[in-house]
User: Fold this.
Amino acid sequence: MTLSITAPDSAPTPPAPAAAGRGASTPPPTDLKVETLSVARVWHPWRWFATVVVLVLSAQFIHGLITNKTWDWKTFQQYVFAPSILNALKLTLELTLYAVLIGFLAGIGIAAARLSKIPLLNVVSWVFVWAFRSIPLPVQILIWFNISALYKTVSLGVPFGPSFFDFSTRSLFSPFVAALIALSLHQAAYAAEIIRAGIISVDPGQSEAAAALGIPRRRQFLRIILPQAMRAIVPNATNEIIGMVKSTSLLSAVAVTELFYQAQVILGRNGRPIPLLIVATFWYIVVTTVLTIGQFYVERHFAKGAQRHLPPTPIQKFRTKIGHIALVIRRRSAEGRIATAGDAR
Amino acid sequence: MSAPTPALDIRGVRKSFGSLEVLRGVDLTVRQGEVTVILGPSGSGKSTLLRVINHLEPADTGIVQVAGEIIGYRLEGTTLHQLPEKKVLKQRAKIGFVFQNFNLFGHRTVLQNVVEAPVSALRISRKDAEVRGRELLAQVGLSDKADSYPRQLSGGQQQRVAIARALALDPQLILFDEPTSALDPELVGEVLTVIQDLASTGITLVVVTHEIGFARKVADTVIFMDEGLIVEKGTPAEVIDNPKEERTKRFISRVL
Assistant:
């Protein structure tokens, strides 16, 4: 569409010649005051169409939620803040927190080993990632849960020589510990690859400059490379953490009373699957939402210096928008007053 | 006979990347406080030579001495023992290096860029390093940019920060790898002025550049390199205005 300039209503302009037609630009008159021009935006009919479709579908969905009795919102209400569910949620969060912490700390080490110049470390870290990415998480959970069948005792000592401490495997590997080991090892393998990806995405000139300045190696990694790698790491890491929140639900198979297990216990008792599945879903959504918001601000923190100016946060954007709308309303009403004053005259 | 120790002494340096021999036996001595400009077509080995000097690329054969100290090795009898990385890093801290692409740390402010190495490599207190850092930023004309991030600066300003960052380690020798090649023509001057000011402070400078005018004005010695060898060496008047070698003549006539 060609540029068409529409003068504001208040400015009297001669009517455009009919021959010009729609979309064709008339040559501007010589006495045109450029300051008085306003821009008429391009009309996007498909945007409006899409908006209407989305609104209709949403309304239908909400209508279904309210009118379909099987959703059983009463039962949902009864259980969503029930102590048993909240305790289970707490366990889910604890498992996630520990698994992610252990997993990512180990992941940093494994990624560093993968990228180091020491051949043995390269091989060991490669094998670790290969092994723990190969085993499905549910299988790994069951293996750790049954580890006492494989080894009756765990001892600290010299290989083939005397042992100093002996533990019974069964007492050492409580379901919680077994679960945590499985989740952490799984997480470490994936975290290592995410961190390695972040590190190799940093311009090699950065470590070269750091080396040329004589900055010690550890510090090069921790202060120069890793903070810049975080920009690539954070979105993927958040993905992984959110994945981990939901992977804890696999532990229901070994009777760890996390959120999903607890929901299943209750629905087995009262025979109302839908509302209890929604209770669990509700909390998974809440946790994911909190993590997503956290991701935004962490990303913003590590974007320091990567962009000339940081983009505004949604809250800042919202404020600007409100301010903008208020400004338009004020201007409109001011214009209206002038117009009515003109009519009165 | 007892000549003072040269600031830089390169002997028989060879370096190959795969089957390509980039440096084919380079010998060069640079006196204390001298400004040496290295000219030559791309691919002639100029940048590699600079990177060999501070051991970013170890030479295949030959040795580099800075102020009488062999870089990257310890000589015992006729054996060169590789130095551990820690020691090499310490040696590098005495040699400034300015990159073509600046390589400023993008996530740290200008002042933090300048302060990082003195604090972590020389173990100077952060406070003292910051005082010195601000002095250096003033010296390169960027006092007001201390708290900006590199990407908020023009290319010329970024390169001046990079020079301040190199100076923060109080080096006796600074290597410049095409410091103005990534800059808009109108920003080249501000960087060259800063380098020219350094020339009068007694720091030894080795500058790889394509700026013939700068070489003529500032250099004590001009070196012309081609295909991994030093083809010609002399004063600017000799090498730039009256080159003897055919290869140098052709190059100079094309860039002038």
Notes: The domain at 71-306 of chain A is CATH 1.10.3720.10 (MetI-like fold). Residues 1-13, 16-20 of chain A have pLDDT under 50 and may be disordered. The beta strands of chain A are 5-6, 38-39, 153-157, 163-168.
